[in-house]
Specification:
InterPro entries: Bromodomain, Bromodomain-like_sf, NET_dom, NET_sf. With about 350 residues, the protein is mainly α. Helices cover about 70% and strands about 0% of the residues. Strands 1-4 form a two-stranded parallel sheet. Strands 2-3 form a two-stranded antiparallel ribbon. The longest helix is centred in the middle third of the chain and has 77 residues, at about 185-265. The model is unreliable at about 1-20 and about 60-70 (pLDDT under 50).
Length: about 350
């Protein structure tokens, strides 16, 4: 196997090449390479974010919306994105309006119950100390009264009720506490049972509207979840496109730097060529085949046919560095060559 001359990529300038101009070029190359490493690190972080998003989307434990997210629906979503945003705003307004209407209707029920002649014992918290009810907190886990309910209904922060079902549960609790603590024949027990029956009758009249509101809320939540999911997909798809563009720019920049680096390479001496050529012939069969494969991949005109193969090292330029790595340990020193 004959070896012709090739460039050795050695950016450290030596001999008569060691001048300020070449040194400046090398420093510039080093800075450019450092900048590319920083840029690649940043791109890698963005790429990891995109990959993690799609991994989570396919994860079996990931939250699922009530709607299918097939390609056809994605296309439909993209085509009507602005309309869906407007629809989402209207959904929030409609949900708030329905909630307010239900609260107003429940307040009317609550007012009628509290105006009953037997409602007095339930208007304020039970005076446990004044009435000497020493075992009250042992029997009743969660005390409740109408004044507490009213205050919570009027609250405009997180301490308020989220929906009318929560208010309904507390109204029932007022009466059930009284019935639990007092004997069936006790007046308070009788009054609580009577008021609870009246409350349940009125609640049943409101219940269909409550059920309808809850059904609409579930549908709206599914719509919102789908909108959010597809919006994230759009954002990450855009990020993926931008990453592809940025990575292409990095590849182009690397090609430019490679050309600049090759221009700063020195030529192999005749002796170095001979030693490398000799080293190639001493490679194990599997490494020789690998070396020929590397050369073929980077030089389409190269053909490894026949028992004797000629390799034009100059034609390989920077790609031949991979072959040189294979030859490490097989290159003879000048003294070893003379000894032959």
């Amino acid at each position: 196997m004959d070896a012709k001359s090739r460039p050795v990529c050695n950016l450290a300038v030596d001999g008569e090449q060691e001048n300020s101009e070449n040194f400046s070029q090398v420093e510039s190359l080093n800075r450019s390479v450092d900048e590319i490493f920083i840029e690649v690190d940043q791109l890698e972080q963005k790429l990891n974010e995109v990959e993690q998003f799609y991994l989570n989307e396919k994860h079996p434990n990931a939250p699922k919306s009530g709607f299918s997210t097939k390609d056809k629906e994605r296309e439909k979503f993209l085509a009507n994105f602005v309309k869906r945003q407007q629809k989402a705003a209207r959904r929030e307004i409609d949900a708030a309006r329905r909630k307010q209407e239900l609260l107003c209707q429940f307040e009317n029920i609550f007012f009628k119950i509290t105006q009953q002649k037997w409602a007095a014992p339930f208007m304020q918290p039970v005076d446990v100390v004044g009435l000497g009810l020493h075992d009250y907190y042992e029997v009743i886990e969660k005390p409740m009264d109408f004044s507490t309910i009213k205050s919570k209904m009027e609250a405009r922060d997180d301490t308020g009720y989220k929906n009318v079902r929560e208010i309904c549960a507390d109204v029932r609790l007022v009466f059930k506490n009284a019935m639990k603590y007092n004997d069936e024949k006790d007046d308070v027990h009788v009054m609580a049972k009577s008021l609870l029956d009246k409350f349940e009758t009125k609640w049943l009249q409101l219940l269909p509207k409550v059920d309808e509101d809850e059904k609409l809320r579930k549908e709206e939540e599914s719509e919102m979840q789908l909108d959010m999911q597809l919006s994230q997909e759009i954002a990450h798809a855009k990020m993926a496109r931008e990453l592809t563009f940025e990575l292409d720019k990095v590849d182009a920049h690397l090609d430019e730097l490679k050309e600049m680096a090759l221009q700063n390479c020195r030529k192999m001496s005749t002796e170095e060529k001979k030693r490398l050529g000799s080293a190639i012939t001493r490679l194990p069969p599997e490494d020789i085949n690998k070396a020929l494969e590397i050369i073929s991949q980077n030089n389409p005109t190269f053909q490894a046919i026949g028992e004797t193969v000629e390799v034009d090292i100059d034609a390989q330029r920077g790609h031949f560095v991979e072959v040189e790595v294979l030859c490490e340990g097989h290159v003879a020193s000048p003294d070893e060559e003379l000894a032959k």
